[in-house]
Amino acid sequence: MIVLTHRFGRLGNRLLITAHLMAYTLETHHTLIDWGLAEYAPYFVGTAPDPHVFRFPVRRDVWNHLPVNQPWVRNTIYTGVRAVRKLVNFYPALKSQVQVLPEPGKHWGNPLLIDDLLVEKILFIRAWYVRAPRCFSKYQDTIRECFTPLPVYQKRIEALLTPLRNQYDVIVGLHIRAGDYRLYGGFHGLEMWRIVMEKMVDFFPEKRVGFLIFSDENFREQVNIFADFSVHFGTGHVVEDLYALARCDYIIAPPSTYSNWAAFYGKVPIYQVGYVKLHTNDPVCHDLTASRQYMEQTMRELNLEKFRRITYFVDHRIDP
Q: For 58-97, what is each residue's pLDDT tens digit?
């Protein structure tokens, strides 16, 4: 049995760790209990039947019907699971039955690979940077099937995209992540995004190119910055935006598990721009000038040959 005891980041990060562990359990015939997916579980066809804790393989039992879908109840249960994991440190006798897998050391770019890990007892995982890339690639279609949005969200995505498909020949999804990326060096204003927009229009001179913008900030009132382009925005719903991004023809984004998931799920070619300083002892990007210059450089280097399709990924970057 594999038990994920922690929640890590937001939707992109949680889908990524869950997908890798799910693929590992498929390969090894273990059971996964994932307390980290939490509030995002009700959105997907493979997790909605078990909305309080994601169990894989999915089960149908009384737990599915318990009235514990209130956030405070979920948080209480989640805290209890973490407490059980910590008990192993105080009761050595439990170590014969339980193994705890901590976060790997600070070696960014080198995740702890568990493709060949032999689990003979209950494994509590309190780490995000744990990956099974070989299993992930092997079971990628099963992962996509599990994390397909429920029909209600698919209908809203279709309502957004259908008019655009009728209007444009090529739809380019722009993931303009601001928020925390202002601090980490991944956002330097909207004006810079005109560089890649101009290049994409130039790549398709005989076609109608539309841009669909997804962001964690509302830029609708600044649409005049993009006055020379055909610009539209996502609904603002975290799941609808993610899977609408997965329906675009191309994705341009800073390094992010969110846009990487969209590229993976939709099998959409993606190009990453800029650099994001994450998961170090000091995550703040102190040289914003250099960061801005690098983002502009990667934007100007854009060409269609540099877009990539991904069958797996391990963090916010696209792996070589």
A: 766 655 555 555 566 656 665 666 666 666 666 666 666 6
Q: What is the pLDDT of residues 255-290, one digit of tens each?
A: 999 999 999 999 999 999 998 876 666 777 888 899
Peptide bond into 320 cis (omega under 30): no
**Continuous segment of H or E residues that includes residue 173:** strand 170-175
DSSP state of 187: -
The residue ranges of every structural domain in the chain are 2-146, 152-306
Phi, psi of 123 (to 5 degrees): -110, 115
The rounded distance, in Å, linking the Cα atoms of 284 and 277 is 7
Residues 198, 230: Cα–Cα separation, whole Å = 11
What is the second-level CATH architecture of the domain 152-306? 3-Layer(aba) Sandwich (3.40)
Whole-number percent of the chain with pLDDT over 90: 56
pTM of the model: 0.89
Candidates 196, 177, 140, 168; CA nearest to 12 is 177
Strand-by-strand arrangement of the 98-101 sheet: 54-56, 32-34, 2-4, 122-125, 98-101
